[in-house]
Amino acid sequence: MDDKLMLMIPGPTPVPEQVLLALAKHPIGHRSGEFSQIMAEVTEGLKWLHQTQNDVLVLTASGTGAMEAGIINFLSPGDRVLVGSNGKFGDRWAKVCEAYGLNVERITAEWGKPLDPEQFRTQLEADTEQQIKAVIITHSETSTGVLNDLETVNRYVKAHGKALMIVDAVTSLGAANVPMDEWQLDVVASGSQKGFMIPPGLGFVAVSPKAWDAYASAKLPRFYLDLGKYRKEAAKNSTPFTPPVNLVFALQAALRMMRAEGLENIFARHQRQKNATRAAIAAMGLPLFAADQAASPAITAVAPVGVEAEQIRSILKKRFDIILAGGQDHLKGKIFRIGHLGFVSDRDILTAIGAIETALQDVGYEGCTPGAGIAAAGKVFANQH
């Protein structure tokens, strides 16, 4: 059946109808008074979502562009940085840093395991000369479904005093609590196609006063991603370069939806859907890739035994028009990932679980009692609604 595609991946995520309708409007001039009014509302909404009074800047870029901007605006060639790497995106930020000539020290964990905050503490406490200029961490590692302990790592960074806390919140913002001001995070980067519920194309960078102090003396090259230009124009409810006007319309609509739902309800919904998904997968006899205590509220990774991950994905796509994500890099073909991020309802979770159960029956998988997954998810929803 046409037009029944159901995205259950960690981005792009489903887009609400009112956001799609906003995208369909005629563009307006991005230097007009009308657009400035929209930018003013959007900026206020972004500050609400980030739980901050600091600058939140809007870039025409992906989440990777936002993170690159978040790194290069506040550092100089040769600066020593600690980068947490326990998945594809932690690896990516280390590579970005190396491309710009930074002195990178990776703090690693096996893919599927969380970063150990004590390793950061050890390195930071040993840095008596305060040579470490930044700590860069992926909050929710999209490639593995692991939520790293940002709060604890950040506490050690704050005790250090000098280093900036730079956060990839691409799949955690709008799904998990990221209170920028309360935790005194310095740079928080995210992208539009995740918890924001709009298509790809916008990146967001929130910047603390401490980070702006570092910006004043930072010497890495930058032009299009020079956040000082964005800050100057944002003060006038404008942008330094041409923005994707209709994506800003979409952002306005999405932020209105999010404010109507409320932060606590948004976080509770993602937590509930994570719990239901994980309970269902366990009830089906399929191994979860990340432990419960490190599980992301945005995505659940499954490492099936006795059935091929790509076979499950193929059946869901062909028979049900449901798209699950596969594994990346060395995990390709070994895991599949279920997104429960952004505009996803409890009904969507039940639908996806039912389809996975059917796929398991199709391939003759004997580790699951038919209906066990739906029953387990339903129990979570009944108790946590």
Secondary structure: elements and pairs:
Blueprint: E1 6-8, H1 17-23, H2 33-50, E2 55-59, H3 63-72, E3 80-85, H4 88-99, E4 103-108, H5 117-126, E5 132-138, E6 140-141, E7 146-147, H6 150-160, E8 164-168, H7 180-183, E9 187-191, E10 203-207, H8 209-215, H9 227-234, H10 245-261, H11 263-283, E11 299-302, H12 309-320, E12 322-326, E13 336-339, H13 346-362, H14 372-384
Parallel strand pairs: 1-12, 3-4, 3-5, 5-8, 8-9
Antiparallel strand pairs: 2-10, 6-7, 9-10, 11-13, 12-13
Helix pairs in contact: 1-10, 2-10, 5-6, 11-13, 11-14, 12-13, 13-14
Task: Give a written overview of the molecule.
This protein has 385 residues and is an alpha/beta fold. It folds into 2 domains: 244 residues, Aspartate Aminotransferase, domain 2 (3-Layer(aba) Sandwich); 123 residues, Aspartate Aminotransferase, domain 1 (Alpha-Beta Complex), CATH 3.90.1150.10. Helix content is 43%, strand content 15%. The protein contains 14 helices and 13 strands. It has a 7-stranded mixed β-sheet, with helices on both faces. The chain has a 4-stranded mixed β-sheet with strand order 1-12-13-11. Strand 3, helix 4 and strand 4 form a beta-alpha-beta unit. Helix 1 packs antiparallel against helix 10 and helix 13 packs antiparallel against helix 14. It is globular, with a radius of gyration of 21 Å. The mean pLDDT is 97.
Unreliable stretches, pLDDT < 50, 5 or more residues?
Answer: none
Strand content bin: 15-25%
Mean pLDDT: 97
Task: Count the E strands.
Answer: 13
CATH third-level topology of the largest domain = Aspartate Aminotransferase, domain 2
The CATH architecture category of the largest domain equals 3-Layer(aba) Sandwich
| Separation of the first and last Cα atoms | 32 Å
Helix/strand order? EHHEHEHEHEEEHEHEEHHHHEHEEHH
Helix content: 40-55%
The CATH superfamily of the largest domain is Type I PLP-dependent aspartate aminotransferase-like (Major domain)
Largest sheet: 7 strands, mixed
What form results from the Cα inertia axes? globular
Any idea of the CATH class of the largest domain? Answer: Alpha Beta
The figure for the number of domains is 2
Count up the helices.
14
Integer-rounded radius of gyration: 21 Å
Structural class: alpha/beta
